[in-house]
Amino acid sequence: MSEDEMLDKETTEPEVWLLRLYIAGQTPKSVRAIANLRKICETHLENRCQIEVVDLMEHPEIGRTDQILAIPTLVRRLPEPITKIIGDLSNTERVLVGLDIIQIGGVDGNDATDPIRK
Q1: Do the beta carbons of residue 18 and residue 77 sit within 8 Å?
Q2: Mean pLDDT of 7-23
Q3: Cα separation of 46 and 25, whole Å?
Q4: Of 114 and 65, which is predicted with more confidence?
Q5: CA distance readout (Å), 112 to 43, 89, 105
Q6: Which of 22, 39, 52, 113 has its CA 20 to 30 A from that of 61?
Q7: H/E element holding 55?
Q8: 26 vs 29: CA distance, rounded Å
Q9: Residue 111: what pLDDT?
C-alpha cells in the first residue's frame, strides 16, 4: 500500500476510542458504570469504541499502570491525550466533556451540541 493510500485510509476511517473502565467486583456502582459507559458509546460514539473492563479484585497489577486511586475510574487511552473520569458515569454531560466528545454545555444545547470528534 502506498503512502498516499495509507493517508487516505487514515482520514476516511472513523476514529476508534479505547476506553478502560476500572472496577472492584460487581458492586452496584460498578454495574451502573459499565451500563452507563455502554450507553454513552452507543449514543455518542456510534459504537466506535472498544471497552476494556478491568476488575481490580482480579487484576490489581493492571491498575498500577494507570495509577488508579479510586473506583470506578474510566481511562480514555485512545485517542490521546489520556484522560480519567472517576465515578459511575451517571452524569452524561460531565463524561462527554471529560472525554472531550463535546464542549461544556453541549448536551442541553447551551453551547455546542455536535460532537467534536466524529
Answers
A1: yes
A2: 75
A3: 28
A4: 65
A5: 16, 20, 7
A6: 39
A7: strand 49-55
A8: 8
A9: 47
- The set of cell numbers assigned to 86 is 472517576
Query: Which helix H or strand E contains 17, and what residues bound it?
Result: strand 17-23
pTM of the model: 0.75
Q: Residue 83 and residue 73: Cα distance in Å, rounded?
A: 10
Distance of CA 61 to the CA centre of its chain: 21
The torsion of the CA quartet 36, 78, 81, 11, rounded to 10 degrees, works out to -120
Every domain of the chain and the residues it spans:
15-98
C-alpha span between 45 and 60 (Å, rounded): 29
> Out of 3.40.30.10, 3.30.360.10, 3.40.50.10240, 3.30.420.250, which CATH number does the structure's domain 15-98 have?
3.40.30.10
- Could you report the per-residue pLDDT of 66-115, keeping only the tens digit for each? 899 999 999 999 999 999 999 999 999 999 999 998 866 544 554 444 44
pLDDT in the model for residue 13: 60
